[in-house]
Amino acid sequence: MGHTVAIIGTRGYPSYYGGFETAVRKLAPYLADQGWDVTVYGRSKETEFPTEADLRVSVVNTRGIENKSLSTLTYGLTACLHAAWKKPDVALVMNVANGFWLPLLRLRGIPVVVNVDGIEWERAKWGGLAKNVFKLGARLTALFATSIVADSKEIGRRWRIEFNRDSNFIPYGGEQGSIESLQDNLPFKQYILMVARFVPENTVPEFLEAARTLSQKYVVVIVGSSGYGGPLEESVENLAASSSNVRWLGHIADDQRLLSLWKNCGVYFHGHSVGGTNPALVQAMANGAPVVARDTVYNREVLGPDGVFCDTTPKGIARSVLSVIETKEEQERLSKLSLERVLQGYTWESVCSAYEKALRSAQARDRRSTLEAISAGTRH
């Protein structure tokens, strides 16, 4: 008899919204291949390209309040209530905000593996109340999770220090695009690319300022949005309107198109600062993109000591980007470095295998705890 697993905390399956959704698109079919009965919880109307779904994966869409502050909490609650009723053998929960609802699963005897994501309470996009909610969710996750997944070693170190919990290090995987053509009609290896959600901690404002200089000589391609409008989207829109060399493509849900953009760019700027191992960075590397990254402990962990890192000033960004795109040898060195680093643990095969191992281990650990409790009870 196969094992049953509920995956909770993403926008659904198949969805192309962010890193969690990408991971679930890879993991759910992998687990099905290994004999698991997989259910993914999501949000109604969030599923994209349903024809790409693996029919062996069950999808349950629950209700919630759709706004920036309450969506994760409310959809997490309804998903956990449904999963508690169905009682799978194990649950994989994404995001510490769902830590509030872990007792619902644990009271039903369901082992829970939690991917804790980044240090959400340090993100600039959240106000004081939201930061406190995430911090409390993290504390509850530390108390109630059977085991924890950290997508970077630095995140794991922070959890040991702040919450006294060890974790499984499982990063994100990368895959090569199958389309070699430049479907966006861009100059091969001669355009600058940024892919990011429009939030301050992704260095978007500083890159936009740098792009004013860079676009005088090179095409600058910006992929992403805030999802909710706002000042950063207005800034990108105004910049694109003022310069024919700046192209804003918005959010791209087509994986192959996005992989092609990374594969053919002259340099990819990665400005993420607080999220651990970033899925976009790994995807860029898998497609041989020459990377210039904001200098953070997370980006250094992924790219290694031979990467190119810059400060967060517009001048610093522009200087580092130009040093790569204007030097063919440096482009080739960084492209080779990207491809080599991906093979050192950042493939989807190794990532999915590690997740399955974590799920089985959580089940075994929970069984041991139950047997020990029963044994202690009989002795008394």
Number of helices: 13
Shape: globular
SSE order: EHEEHEHEHEHEEHEHEHEHEHEHHH
Query: What is the mean pLDDT?
Result: 90
Number of strands: 13
Round the Cα radius of gyration to an integer and report it: 21 Å
How far apart the termini lie comes to 35 Å
Q: Helicity range of the residues?
A: 40-55%
Q: For the report, how would you describe the main beta sheet?
A: 7 strands, parallel
- Structural class, judged by helices and strands? alpha/beta
Question: Can you describe what's shown?
Answer:
Helix content is 45%, strand content 15%. It has helices at residues 19-33, 71-86, 102-107, 128-144, 153-163, 204-214, 231-242, 255-264, 279-286, 297-303, 314-325, 328-342, 348-379; strands at residues 4-8, 37-43, 58-62, 90-94, 112-115, 147-150, 168-169, 191-195, 219-223, 246-250, 267-270, 291-294, 308-310. The strands form two sheets. The protein has a seven-stranded parallel sheet, with helices on both faces. The longest helix has 32 residues, at 348-379. The two termini are 35 Å apart. Mean pLDDT is 90; it is low at 371-378.
List its salient traits.
380 residues; alpha/beta; seven-stranded parallel sheet; globular; disordered C terminus
Précis, in short:
With 380 residues, the chain is of the alpha/beta class. The chain has 13 helices and 13 strands.
List the helices and strands and how they pair.
Blueprint: E1 4-8, H1 19-33, E2 37-43, E3 58-62, H2 71-86, E4 90-94, H3 102-107, E5 112-115, H4 128-144, E6 147-150, H5 153-163, E7 168-169, E8 191-195, H6 204-214, E9 219-223, H7 231-242, E10 246-250, H8 255-264, E11 267-270, H9 279-286, E12 291-294, H10 297-303, E13 308-310, H11 314-325, H12 328-342, H13 348-379
Parallel strand pairs: 1-2, 1-4, 2-3, 4-5, 5-6, 6-7, 8-9, 8-11, 9-10, 11-12, 12-13
Helix pairs in contact: 1-13, 6-7, 6-11, 9-12
